[in-house]
Design a protein that fits this description.
This protein has 252 residues and is an alpha+beta fold. It is 28% helix and 33% strand. Helix 1 crosses helix 3.
Length: 252
């Protein structure tokens, strides 16, 4: 079992199970553990020199958080890949800021900023008139220079709303600008998610092979008055990254 050579420190006051969990989660996220090799209690007992109780508690929490999974009769296996956490109170369009706040080396590239007539399916989702234009742009977010997600965004906004590409390039959310400049606040989003495979264009954008599994999420953003104001289609690289979502029962 490859490790990051981290040891337990009983003097810190941090429970042993938590230290074991943190060490293993870091190793799993870094890809240091073989996904085909089970993480057994025997190996962990030998490595950490503790009783079974903290080992079992650490494995339970790792399982609850999606870092490992159990195969009946075969053992517990790691789920490699860096976690991308998106909390319940994350503002619409603020994934870049949240990843940066988590200490990740995050970068963003914005392009194709213009007012256009959207495709028919976007027009239908936003309830647009036939010749109604919207603000459109695309955003690529990368972590450690590895493309994470590519989004195509359409916003139903006043014509006077004309953000500078340098503002968006700096990581600020278009939704934040819309609220700041026009008082239009998004309070709800409707999401559809599915698994797809990379087309030639998507493979080029995310630097993967054609046919690679991707996570696709289609989102409609709704204002306080109940009007659909934004549409986003995002594709997410799903091999190097794992996505951890939480929801808020109180709404946004």
């Amino acid at each position: 079992m490859a490790t990051l050579n981290k040891e337990l420190d009983p003097s810190t006051g941090v429970p042993l199970y938590r230290q074991i969990k943190d060490i293993l989660s870091a190793e799993i996220s870094a890809g240091s553990l073989n996904a085909a090799t089970p993480i057994t209690e025997a190996l962990l007992l030998e490595r950490f020199k503790v009783s079974r109780a903290p080992i079992r508690q650490a494995l339970k929490e790792l399982s609850d958080e999606g870092f490992v999974y159990r195969k009946q009769g075969k053992g517990t296996f790691p789920v490699p890949g860096r976690r991308i956490d998106r909390s319940a109170d994350t503002r619409a369009g603020a994934l870049f800021q949240q990843l940066t706040a988590q200490g990740l080396n995050t970068s963003t590239t914005v392009g194709q900023l213009a007012r256009i007539l959207p495709p028919p399916h976007v027009q239908k989702k936003l309830g647009l008139e036939v010749n109604e234009s919207v603000l459109h742009f695309v955003r690529l977010i990368s972590v450690d220079n590895i493309p994470l997600t590519h989004s195509s965004i359409y916003l139903r906004t006043p014509v006077e709303f004309a953000p500078d590409i340098s503002e968006l390039q700096g990581g600020i959310s278009a939704f934040e600008l819309l609220e700041r400049d026009f008082g239009i606040k998004l309070v709800e989003s409707e999401n559809e998610a599915w698994v797809t495979t990379a087309s030639t264009q998507q493979a080029e954008r995310l630097q993967v092979s054609v046919g690679t599994p991707l996570l696709a999420i289609e989102t409609v953003f709704i204002t306080k008055g109940g009007a659909p104001t934004g549409f986003r289609f995002a594709i997410h690289r799903s091999e190097e990254f794992k996505y951890h979502f939480t929801t808020n029962s109180q709404g946004i």
